[in-house]
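Training component of the fellowship. As part of building independent skills, the fellow (R.M.) carried out the full modelling exercise for a liganded target. The chosen ligand was zinc ion. The inputs are recorded below so that the supervisory panel can assess the work.
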Amino acid sequence: MESLLKRLNGLPFGLMGNKHIIRIPSIVVVGQEVLDNLIEIIDSLSIRKVLLTVGKFTRKLAGEYVKNLLERKGIKTKMIEVLEPSLQNAMKGIKLYDKYNFDAVIGVGGGKNLDVGKVIAKETKSLFISVPTTASHDGIASPFASLRERRGRHSLQTIPPIAVIADIDIISKAPKRFFRAGIGDVIANINAVQDWLLAHRVKGEYYGEYAANLARMSAEHLIKNEHILSRYDLEAFRTLVEALISSGIAMGIAGSSRPGSGAEHLFSHALDRIAIHPALHGEQCALGTIMMLYYRGDERWMEIKEFLEYIGMPTKARELGISNDEVIKALTIAHKIRPERYTILGSNGMSFDDAYRIAKETGVID
Ligand SMILES: [Zn+2]
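Fellow's submitted model of the complex:
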């Protein structure tokens, strides 16, 4: 018989007419050596069969450990390796459900394993448990997955994880670049919430002030604790992971990625499409945040830039291997990426002259 929780998991959420259904994680565990907590959580949710989504590297890093942990407790466990964040990869797991009927999907990894895991969980109405191995983006606790398409990526509403187990020992072993990218993804909220309010005023889109404030607070929390972040120690990782989780929860409350994704994200998605060597999502969003704040006349662009430099984040495109031309091109096409997402770029986008001037005056290009 289908468990009660599983049925609950099939419920839609977000804004439906005058009804607003919020779904956020129930259990969040952040700390050192916390992977073993999975057993208690699995037990409390009456989970008997599990599908693990791992990557080549995260299989060794934590996947095998989790598999052994569960099997020792008599939980049937299957593991699939995710090659790329695509629907085809998610189909592998969805097909497995017919034979194997798992109760929960546990995503172990950085971006793609969590994204694909969320899609499988949604389609099979299973529970999703997030076990992040990097702190590079705010998808750790959000109900959204980013999948790759023929041209770039697109964001998909899935389900929020019922539990997030963030092991700081594991997360802190990831390259420094991932840590900084995570900071960039949260800092993006400062621009994203302004785009959201703008869309509300211009297009009448739903705007949730509480969710917007929570998203903004997640970013302010990082700025306030820049001295901790610059130390790059366990406390720094913990501070970032908490901000990423609260940022993801803001999206669960909003029922959309609006609190964490505005024009700066459109710029990053545009770069993913056109750059020869795109940088990490959060690194690109950080550049986008500086430029979009400047474009909308928000004087905080300078403060954000100084903050990013203080924590060692590149604020020049070429430091990330992105050319000046690619920056300008991405700025001018960003509004076409998701036309329904109204931002400071408006319906017509940014002119070439504006793009050049803004990139130059903010120092993103030389
Ligand atoms: Zn993002």
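The panel noted the following from the submitted structure. Residues 271 and 327 are 7 Å apart (CA to CA). The chain has two domains: 4-171, 176-361.
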